Amino acid sequence: MMAYSFLQHKIMGAIEADDEYWRWLEEGEFRLPRCASCQHWTWPAHFRCGRCGSWEFEWTAIAPEGRIFSWTRSWYAFDRVMERKKDVPYITIVTELPAAGGARVMGVLTGDTSNVRIGMAVRGTIQPPSAKTKFYPSVTWEIVR
Amino acid sequence: MSKFRGAAAVVGIGQTPYYKRGTSPDPELKLALRAITAAAEDAGIDVRDIDGFVSYASERSDPAKLMPALGTRNLRFASLAWFHGGALPATLNLATGAILSGQAEIVAVYRSMAESSSQRLRVVVAQNDTSSQYLVNGLESPAQILALRAQRLMEHDGVPRSALWATVQASYHHARNNPHAYGRNTEMTEEIYENARLISEPYRLFDCSRENDGAACVLVVSAERARDLRQKPAYILSAPMGTMEGGGALEENWRPYYGTAGHKELAARMWAEAGYGPQDVDVAQVYMNMTSMGIGSMIDHGFFTTEEAGDFCRFENLIAPSGKLPINTSGGDLGEGFIHGMGLIPEAVRQIRGTSVNQVPGAKLSLVTGGPGDIVSSTGLLGSEETL
């Protein structure tokens, strides 16, 4: 278990129910949690389904395809993400995933980012852990042209 | 009728100067002592009689550290409102609750910060609870996260950039008359605003609050006691805290009010409890961590709709003495200075007293909003005696 890169570089302090998300990404799969009882997409991941009270989730594989819900281009190397200093300016998007009940995930936009607009279709690629992603796996997104 | 409404009032104000971030000559505990003692003096209250202490977010100057230096006789109530700047008016809620239930008689509501003492931005504001979902993807600062909300509010919901500029223009216009404002001498034109360096799109430098060292305090007592003190009381009519379903720590999955501020349900509760509506407000201190978030807060409070934002948010509408809704009359978080929003409550009180440097003549209802976009927030309405 401890072979996973993200577990050796664990970021602490938030809800921390998303280990399975990162584990599956490191395995090369994009999976989001669905309540095993009421089928609600429980994202961000949590320990209990607030809709029906179930404690069981099915981590369900979906295609990393969605639409840009919002975006920002960072023009400054912010303190806790200094690893990206050389990438400034870079764009981070919020992707809405229709296949997961409209759940939204964040990720960096790569490729041709000109004319980025809300609503554009994007496709994700799973990236292995790297220093830039704090040794977590990640999904980067590209606009579908 | 709510028991809360008008049960307590703000009777004292104390503020240190605003220092450039990281340059306060005093550590934050001393800044807190300065602000609290100044507030007691303003109110004509013996500082040793303060028996309640309320702050918010990750305040480090806790009452245990303060009481030896204040000469506190009896510490009876101490509490911290959770989360970040959203908790600002919630402090008035806690103070009123403590007074109303007989737990305390004189409550100091305060916030102190000095970057050199507490590494504010890294540890104190973020509280190190930023999820990996953000950090892995190059997002860490509130500026970046709120930029995502702003982009949605502007590009998708159609709030124009001119509305953001109008709030900046009004804030600096007001700051110019305020000898305590850190930004009073900052030259501000539309050209300067539009050409300032980009921080996180759509935000440029002057869309962001200032970040200063400093401390501020207000003293809260029962309405009954307030009438016998030397200052004109600013009664707390309502100060609800909370978050509606669809909010909370949801990592950009907020629904349905993503682009605004999460204040809609709070504001509805406040209007209901206070018995007033947005049309009755004389002056508003709108928390502006970022320009667009303040606009979102005004939308959520019902001052205008998303569609009306461009029309409403014009310089002439936002300034004292006679704008439709004068905002941030001390200069606010953008122009006066920013110690996690705590400068806004004293200014809301000065408007009721009639002592603001940018006074709205005869102001009776004075709004102060909490940090917009925070995972839990609050909002507060202060009123003069005739509003009770």
Structure in words:
By secondary structure, chain A is mostly beta strands. Chain A is 8% helix and 34% strand. In chain A, the strands form two sheets. In chain A, strands 3-4-5-7-6 form a five-stranded mixed beta barrel. In chain A, strands 1-2 form a two-stranded antiparallel sheet. Chain A starts with a helix and ends with a strand. With 388 residues, chain B is α+β, with helices and mostly antiparallel strands. Chain B has two domains: 8-122 and 214-226, Peroxisomal Thiolase, Chain A, domain 1 (3-Layer(aba) Sandwich), CATH 3.40.47; 139-210 and 236-387, 3-Layer(aba) Sandwich (Peroxisomal Thiolase, Chain A, domain 1), CATH 3.40.47.10. Chain B has helices spanning 28-43, 63-70, 90-100, 115-118, 120-125, 132-135, 142-156, 161-176, 190-195, 223-226, 264-274, 291-300, 309-312, 315-318, 332-335, 344-353, and strands at 8-15, 19-20, 52-56, 77-81, 107-113, 198-200, 203-204, 212-222, 234-238, 241-242, 283-285, 365-369, 377-383. In chain B, the strands form two sheets. In chain B, strands 1, 2, 3, 4, 5, 8, 9, 10, 11, 12 and 13 form an eleven-stranded mixed beta sheet that branches. In chain B, strands 6-7 form a two-stranded antiparallel sheet. In chain B, a hairpin with a 2-residue loop joins β6 (198-200) and β7. In chain B, α1 (28-43) crosses α2 and α8 packs across α12. In chain B, 62% of the residues are buried. Chains A and B meet through β3, β4 and β5 of A and α6, α7 and β6 of B.
